[in-house]
Automatic annotation (TrEMBL):
Protein name per its UniProtKB record: Glycosyltransferase family 1 protein
InterPro entries in the cross-refs: Glyco_trans_1, Glyco_trans_4-like_N
Keywords: Transferase
Glycosyltransferase subfamily 4-like N-terminal domain location: 107-173
Coiled coil, from the record: none
Length: 357
């Protein structure tokens, strides 16, 4: 009987990113579940995985042409380990930037978003990869895992994929009911907050334009990579109510949530939208763009939706008097039920196991 082997490809994982979070909370624990169920597990990654066999991850300094060379070299290595073995092999790609069209029929691809298709000017080279390479690869894959139904619908729309080929498996959240007393009282509300990267889908210009029109009663703390955006830095330089916090620790982030008046989230598009879930956990007011991703994540939570600058400005002003009267115990139970790393790991294992039977 053939040995069942799963090759897990992570690509280059950068510390303190969403991909490292996904690796640590989902993929690595999944690898141990596979071992416990008799699978052989092999990693191709730049992260040290002492309990597993590995395939060398070459050309780690991948910039410009070296990025393309590295991707081609990876594909050849994976083809060698897949085609010239007596094992029954399945490949799990942790994200969509891991080409292996030679072995696509033995691949499960996890898709987190398809932003380069939506914003070609920001990602001109990646746009070509998504448009001309990723589509044919996905059509040949054994299965596709999407982190949201919104991303699933976009995959169907852009690549004309069959609905039953794509399985939605939500990411988990880092909180648990046991971790923190659900009766925790929130601190004195101070500022509105925004958390996100410097990317075109984040709609940062709208955010700073609106707060520039408001007085000192409405201050905005901007957190994470968004502080590198030139429009954001320019707005902060001339508007004292816009404050750049940059990258902060987990404890500092927790305090920002506890102290904030509301989370303001103007993104045009998201693969998942983690800050929305974090704000819900703390029972905070959410002011968010009226987009599919927001409706999916927030679902029954009483978020305030807006469609343009005027509506956003009105929502910010009106939120001063807004009270949702939330049952925080129920909110947190619903969140941990819907967005569970345990559930995500088990669901991915079930997909793998059903294919390998």
């Amino acid at each position: 009987m053939k040995k069942r082997k799963v090759i897990i490809r992570t690509g280059k994982v950068i510390p303190n990113t969403s991909m490292e979070n996904y690796l640590q909370n989902c993929i690595l624990p999944l690898a141990y579940i596979l071992l416990e169920n008799g699978y052989k597990v092999v990693f191709q990654t730049n992260v040290k995985t002492t309990d597993f066999d590995s395939i060398a991850f070459r050309l780690q300094n991948r910039r410009g042409p070296f990025h393309i060379l590295g991707m081609l070299f990876d594909e050849l290595q994976i083809a060698f380990h897949t085609l010239f073995t007596k094992d029954q092999v399945l490949i799990l790609n942790m994200n969509q930037l891991l080409p292996n069209i030679l072995c696509a029929k033995n691949t499960i691809m996890i898709i987190h978003d398809i932003m380069p298709l939506e914003y070609p000017a920001h990602w001109p080279l990646l746009h070509k990869y998504y448009k001309y390479y990723l589509g044919p690869l996905l059509k040949r894959c054994r299965a596709i895992i999407s982190v949201s139904n919104t991303t699933k619908r976009k995959l169907q729309e852009f690549y004309n994929l069959k609905e039953d080929k794509i399985i939605t498996i939500y990411n988990g959240i880092k909180f648990s009911i046991k971790e923190e007393d659900v009766t925790t009282k929130m601190n004195v509300e101070e500022a509105f907050i925004y958390i996100g990267a410097d990317l075109p889908n984040k709609n940062l210009r709208l955010l700073t334009d609106v707060f520039a029109e408001l007085d000192e009663r409405y201050s905005l703390n901007m957190i994470s990579g968004c502080c590198n955006n030139k429009d954001v830095t320019a707005a902060a330089a001339i508007n004292s109510n816009i404050k750049l916090m940059g990258y902060i620790s987990e404890e500092e982030l927790k305090q920002q949530y506890l102290n904030c008046k509301a989370l303001v989230y103007p993104s045009f598009s998201e693969g998942f939208g983690l800050p929305l879930i974090e704000a819900m956990w703390y029972g905070k007011t959410i002011i968010v763009a009226d987009k599919d991703y927001a409706r999916e994540v927030c679902e029954d939570y009483p978020a305030i939706y807006f469609e343009n600058n005027k509506q956003l400005k009105n929502a910010i002003v009106m939120s001063q008097e807004y009270s949702a009267n939330l049952d925080l115990v129920k909110v947190r139970k619903d969140l941990t039920s819907k967005f569970s790393w345990d559930k995500a790991r088990q669901s991915i294992f079930n997909v793998l196991d059903n294919i390998m039977k």
